[in-house]
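Allow me, if you will, to draw on your knowledge of protein folds for a short while. I have a record of one protein: its chain in single-letter code and its fold written as discrete structure tokens. The full record is reproduced below for your convenience:
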Amino acid sequence: MAGSARSRKGLLWTLVPVVVLIVVAAIVLVIALRVDQDSDALPEGAVPQPSPASLTPRINPVAADAPSPTPDGVRADLTQALANPDLGQLSGEISDAVSGQTLWSATPSRPMVPASTIKVLTASAALVALPHDKRITTTVVAGAGGQVILVGAGDPTLSAQPAGAQTFFTDAPRISELADQIKKAGINVTSVAVDTSGFSGPTMAQSWDPADIAGGNITPIESLIADSGRIDPLEIDSPRTATPAVTAGAALASALGVDSAVAQATAPAEAQVIAQVESAPLVTRLGDMMRASDNVLAETVSIEIAAATGGRPTMAGGIDAVRKALSDYGFNMNGTVFADVSGLSEDNRISAGLLDKVVNAGAGTAQPKLRPLLDMLPVAGATGTLAERFATENQAGAGWVRAKTGTLTGASALVGVVQTREGRVLSFALMSNGTSPDVARPALDAIAVALRDCGCR
């Protein structure tokens, strides 16, 4: 997401009809006022002007009996879009959300590089394994000699932004709130330490490039991270810090007016809690993760699942927890290879068939735990990583396609849902390997548009 420019482009789809309605309403109001002023001149028995029109926004549900495309119809309508050589090596699956019927597929079981579409699995595992309203509590405890210890609990949405300032994540807890509570407790703080014992093991996956820290894609995965490690808290592509826990501790020290260096410490088991803040609910955090495609949040969510289900609080434990949660829920995980759960690694291998089946389960009615997944998907031409796609090219899909994107060098993917012009919801997973994202992404978008336009019977 490139910030406000993307948002403005997406909002045009909403603002144009709203502006028209406002102009119409204003004209009606002026006419009504003029009639009222000249009411003495109306002929006897004339019908007075009606009240100005009012707008009542509402959401109309998709009709359950909307006509379903047929496999032959889908195949015929996709012929031109599928013939595009920019798709490279394509694997995909398209299914009906109501019946679950597969309408089209191309090598759907072939393991492909998923890039960030693997986050569909991470989010889904969290939805089936954790309470949807689960929150994470970050605490500060009293140490010895006036030291306070900031204890990380695995919430990278914790923000160093001052009170009242915008935060990157929705309803983010703030370090400034912790500082205010400490001050109210009347403690004479002499130093700040950080406790990262909530997570263990390596903080970087073997297949990650350390240059991606400065490149803005990742920060070392510690149990204490502020603003997902972003040096510029509001910039999606901001370089990240290589020392997230110490950086968060320094933000607390600054808020408290403490000049001493931040130390590492382990909080005593019975230490007094002197301040605490809570994250937003799980579904809110997952929505931020999916729309912004935040790699750090994806990795910490997987460890959150592991810790809650008896697994190891490590990155490897997070991978195991995601795999187990989905397998226990009935999804076939055979052939999947997880090098991480964010999609940053080029060593991941996931099939289009698995991704489509997970999204299809959320789009249908049989799996209510997965239903929130649909609300987390970026909207074409409007939000998140789709804000600039479908806005100038493939415009017919704007507002109608909701999908998670995935982009690495030589790997592009699009996984989500689309409503046909006849009101039928279809799920899809499209994965392209071997061509540049600059050409592969528009080619994938064109397939989604063909589904939007199809009657396909």
